[in-house]
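Model: Ready when you are.
Researcher: Fold this.
Model:
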Amino acid sequence: MLPKRCPGWYYSGYEGNMADRTHLTDQSVEALEPRATRYVVKDSKTQGLEIRVSKSGMKVWALVYRFGAKVSRLTLGTWGKNRHEVGAKEARKLASEAWAKIRGGVDPTQPDPRTLTVKEAVESYLSTRPRQRPEFERDVLPVIGERPVASLSRADVTACLDHLRLRAATNPRAKRGGEEAAEALRKFMGSFFRHCYERGWTDSNPAKEIRAYVGKPRERVLAPHEITAFWLGLERTRASSSSKAALRFALVTGQRIGVILALRWDEIRGDLGGLPVWHQPAVKTKAKRDHEIPLPSLARELLVKQRALYPDSPWCFPSVGDAPVAYTGLAQIMRSHSTAWKIVPPATVHDLRRSCATGLADLGISYRVVADVLGHRRPGPTAIYVQQSGIELKRQALETWSDYLRTRINQKENTPAE
């Protein structure tokens, strides 16, 4: 019996009558039948162990315990006799291991920072950053995946970066040069270590100690004839309507592609037949502040078509299932079709945002308004006093750009084929 001051004091009938409990075996659990509502059967041998039987007949092992002032339930697995299921003997073993952690002052529902591996911590980190998964699976997990997070040093981060450089050097199809890709991975790993530090899994951020690579910033902007070729060329591809619309929407609005793909209908304020405003919440913007974009006519037309095609989806640019279009698909479209569209050198998805900004400036829009359309932070103390341009200034700028795009597209469409 656990001492009363043990942090794992079981809260439900620990010293009470055990007659309402059952010795849970594989045979007794198998005999449990589903009822109209979910019910619980508690074990008489292992304290806190119980089996939860759902209406569908699924049976799940759990351990109920108190840690400090908090009552928690630890799921041990689904009962069954197959390889990936948990039988009665295995459930008791898992419960005993959990009680050992509780006696040692460790909450079993929380990862133990002393033994937490990089692989386990990466899964927690990627739960909110799924787009970074390929980089971690290619160049981090194969190198340090089984190492404890708390034991990592600057040398381990360097080993991951060297792994990437070697792979890029020996792969002629690598998407980016070794140093540029290594710098992107260094930033991702820095973000990963901050995630671990905030949760008490490590005491340092070794990626922060690695010198950043400063390369030449990309300056690619689509020329006027390339903008027309891009817009009309998309129509001849086999890409989904959502992919085509998302790429065009990026050129029209100049917004970051990640925010565009995460656009939901409830972020659009106002009717598409009027003058709607796209409200970007601070949690989705790079500047970590709310950002409002008035939607010009060309953007509204794209959304009207998307609404008609996908009336039941919460996403403006949905893919298969209940998910938005993936960035990788858009990048592949730009990479594989640029040459056919006579866009040389090939353009990237982010080049569409830069082309919008440059186009606005070429049309006489002030840099201040262009920066506010893009959602860039203004440098210096003036930014504290001068807030973003008004909605009307941004609306006029984007409508001017939208009219320019429409003129170019219509001129090309009305030109007879040679």
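Researcher: Now this one.
Model:
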Amino acid sequence: MDLKMCRQISRLHILRYIGYIGNKKTLYLHKIQCNMENKSFSLSRIKIKRLFGNKNIDWKLYQDVNILGGINGSGKSTILKCVNSILQNEFLEEDTLKLVDSIKLFFTNDIVVKWNKFVCNRIEFIPEKDCSYSYSGLNKEGLVTIQKVQVEQNGEKIDFEDLKKNLNVYFISTFDTIILKDVSDILENKDIKTNLDLMIHNQIVKRNGLIVESVSMYRDEIKKESIDEFAKNYKELFFEKVIDDVLAKKDINVLTKINDKDKLKQFVLDLFKDEENSVRTFFEEKMREIVKKKVISEIYEYLDSFFVDKTSIKDTGSFDFLINNSRINYLQLSTGEKQLLYILLVVFNTNKKTCILLMDEPDLGLHVIWKEKFVSILRKINPNAQIILTTHAPSMVRGWVEHVKEVKQITVK
């Protein structure tokens, strides 16, 4: 048997061993995913004084799902807007500034964010150390409204920026279908017409970037750990198996004149050096396929669980669907379908990190059957997300009845 055939035999054993490691791929995936998880924290309580000038709010939160109901004008949306403004921007926007007097946000790691406002003479005002301030315009009396933010953990003051670095907050509110102007010059897709279209487009771009990043990260991890472990195990296991096979099968013994096991072992080692690059490439490609399939296919599966009359076309850089043998893209979906796609993309793009999802009536425009499984699907996409949402729909609380509060239930004296 010539050297070429010997290499073929060697390659066969190598690929069999790769298959053995491939069966353990879930261990590698789990390890890498654990490294990706953000060691962040969630909200445990929201306290607001004088909401609309006459309500005090005290809402104790679950770490997974929180649903807030209430009649129109009861303050559901205002509560979420205030929380989002403070966590994202440190201060309240002008439209909500006049609606509350003070806010306290409590976290599961004992951090407390304290916000309040007061009116005074800017010239006479002396700021406190380790606090942040924002100043609004003069009123008729020549006084300014000052917002003050203080962050503490177990009595020790900390910088707001240090808090924000470890906090992932996403706010989903109304889904405007306002016609956009002058976007055709900056976007390749000329069919993007509305604000909702643009929001989806941006999330798709982010999603594609995450896929590239994930595949690259897994590839680097494979190079760093899996290949090294493969080589180590190769020396310990592969040599012995190949050598034993060759020596045992006299009819295919390519080295009948070499009966010394050490010499045969060296021959196999030299042979492996010739094959190492191709083995490494093969192994990386297989693992990349596994990762890419895992990362890409998940969101399509969840979409298909909602869309009964159309099927998603997978493995594309966008979102296309088949309906009655006709192909359409996401821009041709209904407003409700676009809204659902946008929410799923936002949650998917959290990359399973610990985060806070603030959603103001995300179920508007969704079918009642979709509403019933909406929260559960979001939890499946990211089980590490704390969901805080408002709704008018009883169907949204299915499976989460104990996690539902009405605004009047969290209103205290």
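Researcher: Key takeaway?
Model: The CA atoms of residues 166 and 203 lie 22 Å apart.
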